[in-house]
Amino acid sequence: MPAETQAQQTAIDHLEHLNQALDSGLFVHVREMLHHMAPADIAHILESSPPKTRQILWQLVDHAHSGEILEELGEDMKDQLISLMSPTHLAKVTAGMDTDDLAYVLRSLPDSLYRQVLQSMSVQDRTRVEQALSYPDDTAGSLMNTDTVTIRPDVNIDVVLRYLRQRGELPKATDTLYVVDHQDCLLGGVTLAQLLTYSSSTGIISIMNRQLESIPVTMTDSEVAKLFERHDWLSAPVVDDKGKLLGRITIDDVVDVIREDAEHSLMGMAGMDDAEDTFGPVLKSAGRRSLWLSLNLLTALLAASVSNLFEGTLEKFATVAILMTIVPSMGGVAGNQTLVLVIRGIALGHLGQRNTRWLIVKELLIGVLNGLLWAGLIFIAVWLWKHDVTLGLLIAGAMLVNLTAAGLAGAVIPILLKKLHIDPALAGGMVLTTVTDVVGLFAFLGLATLFLGH
Amino acid sequence: MPAETQAQQTAIDHLEHLNQALDSGLFVHVREMLHHMAPADIAHILESSPPKTRQILWQLVDHAHSGEILEELGEDMKDQLISLMSPTHLAKVTAGMDTDDLAYVLRSLPDSLYRQVLQSMSVQDRTRVEQALSYPDDTAGSLMNTDTVTIRPDVNIDVVLRYLRQRGELPKATDTLYVVDHQDCLLGGVTLAQLLTYSSSTGIISIMNRQLESIPVTMTDSEVAKLFERHDWLSAPVVDDKGKLLGRITIDDVVDVIREDAEHSLMGMAGMDDAEDTFGPVLKSAGRRSLWLSLNLLTALLAASVSNLFEGTLEKFATVAILMTIVPSMGGVAGNQTLVLVIRGIALGHLGQRNTRWLIVKELLIGVLNGLLWAGLIFIAVWLWKHDVTLGLLIAGAMLVNLTAAGLAGAVIPILLKKLHIDPALAGGMVLTTVTDVVGLFAFLGLATLFLGH
């Protein structure tokens, strides 16, 4: 696609030019180039650079824009760069940030630095951010901004228009003004489009949307994202349990949540942290991945100890050893398909009490069908290869058992994990592989031991 | 979290109530309940229901809302329900749809039905949709709507306000009016917020954003999504290669693209189609998953044929057979971690020519480090278990070789696949497992054959 090539070209061109300038030590030139780039594009280049280049670039960036750049970066990168900055610099940079990003930066600071930064802020900024920090991470409260524009119900559009002209610029992504009473309780909303299309004598009370849905400040951010997606909202008001307007959430922050949730699932399935920085330091990356590998080693040793139970059979029949990896492997792949489907169903909120049972039965049936199909095919393959009907029947039997178990396990494991409050995207794959390895080996080696004689 | 429970409860409550009413045959009651629900919520309930319930529900849905419900559904479900509808019904339903959704529905129809539906439409709708159909799927053209509101540069805000009041309601998610010349070429944009905050005598030409970025109609939808994410846009104008305004893309459609791309990666890694319907029919699901399982069978047979080369060793040493699954398993997990990281890097557009080499070296180094670590640990484990130093050293050597190969393969495979225009998220895992299985078995069985004597 020419369009794609063009857009990606620009970003990569920038990077190549910057790198050439860096290599030649033309730092003034680099500073000049960075000065003319949008914060989002600088963030992109920082994320695409190895650690050393990154540090140099960060020092050459215009200090006035560092806050905006920080807002655009992934968590791991944000933490890295923050650790390079002095408290006064941090306080200066954070002055212009959105409340939610500001709270994030402060949350990630060590205690002493946190106090220093807070003290170097203006009283207004400090109050604003201290409130934001009082809401738990990953809730609507931590996602919202307090920059709502509110109006009273008993005025007409003309009054609102005069107020807005006097007020000047609206906060970015404002599509709705919130109508509140004297206690700041949310009564409804009026869109900018309504203000522009109704006659100026219209009373706010007669056009405001009283059914405007509001988000409880304690709702989880994933739940907020689902509501935005389902209702195609651009922004939504956030209220406390008494209906008092606290702030608003805008779609751009929700898009970040959707992206993070998606990356969390994708990276989590491979046992990685979604904050993992592609160009992060080698030792840190290696360390982080060890937990997953150590769990896998335990699984692999467990599988080996199952094989160990059938040492006698393995000693006598080398062919059994040669074929014994096939059944666990097929079980792993089939089970993983079911697992991913069910994890997605949970994430989308599709699974209730009644349809869960239906889904488990469905996946079990698919397991049996797959089992019959692949049992037949593996029988033919082994018979053609090893000219041994008994061995073919044994591996076919084991295949049927394991693929049925895989269908059942793939459906039941994520549902059980969810009930135990363990993230299925993170733990599901490992638990599943353990089941399909153990069942697969038990079935094949067990059948071989029973029927091949001692 | 109480908030999450509450929101999910509502959806599941609805479902339970509906199911009870369906079971008791109270169809009038079900129809009444559906009548009071938002289209997005009905879509959610349809997606959460097994096939039979789904068909009954669809027949009970208010025909006036079927179009809106269709817009909210996943592709697989959309196709299922469309196949249940008559051409006249389809034509009626599609009359009120957004251009992009309408084009989708028509694209999925068989040729004869397509003509019938098109003929039952009004001339205006037909022209509109025929244009939308002329753009390839997965491009900005297929994503855009033609409901732009345009103004001329040579008027002032007062004129625009009078025009808007006369015009009435604005298309949903309108945040910007587009300024065009007599040839409909895009000159810039004026936001609703600007219209509300500037004095009414201000000329459009003096406040319009001339730097407004526009999207070429041929750009891929993933590229469009990246631009929206990076710049926090709510909407963006779409132009042809001469700069003529063709339509606009809104963030709600972009959110769907982001969600679909994410699901595509997640489901693709397990060899599933992202359109896969969680509650779809058993036979169809089983069939769809077979391709992946057949590829895996070939991989497993290839691995078995590697073991077969070392039949002599396996015959003499059953312990080798017992331990031989450990090294491939560790290689698979370690390689998959690198693979997922690199696939994400490619998806985010982070990988250029220069940093790719850096990344491959980094992942190779992590492979060596991991290799040394797990070689040490497996040596200890095997030594404690089997009291055999030689065997411990052999498996440790194989582990080092395979984890190094896994790091290298995990980084190189997705980059190579991308160059060959094969989706790395889809094919990467299978290719990687083949490499780590074959290298792992070759290394361990090869070393065992060399050093354990014949």
UniProtKB/TrEMBL annotation, chains A, B:
It is found in: Cell membrane; Membrane. The chain crosses the membrane at residues 291-310, 322-343, 364-385, 391-417, 429-452. It holds the Pfam family MgtE. InterPro entries: CBS_dom, CBS_dom_sf, Mg_transptr_MgtE_intracell_dom, MgtE_N_sf, MgtE_transporter, SLC41_membr_dom, SLC41_membr_dom_sf. Residues 144-207, 208-266 form the CBS domain. Keywords: CBS domain, Cell membrane, Magnesium, Membrane, Metal-binding, Transmembrane, Transmembrane helix, Transport. It is a multi-pass membrane protein. Gene3D superfamilies: CBS-domain, MgtE N-terminal domain-like, SLC41 divalent cation transporters, integral membrane domain. SUPFAM superfamilies: CBS-domain pair, MgtE membrane domain-like, MgtE N-terminal domain-like. Acts as a magnesium transporter. Homodimer. Belongs to the SLC41A transporter family. This is Magnesium transporter MgtE. It comes from Shewanella yunxiaonensis. The gene is mgtE.
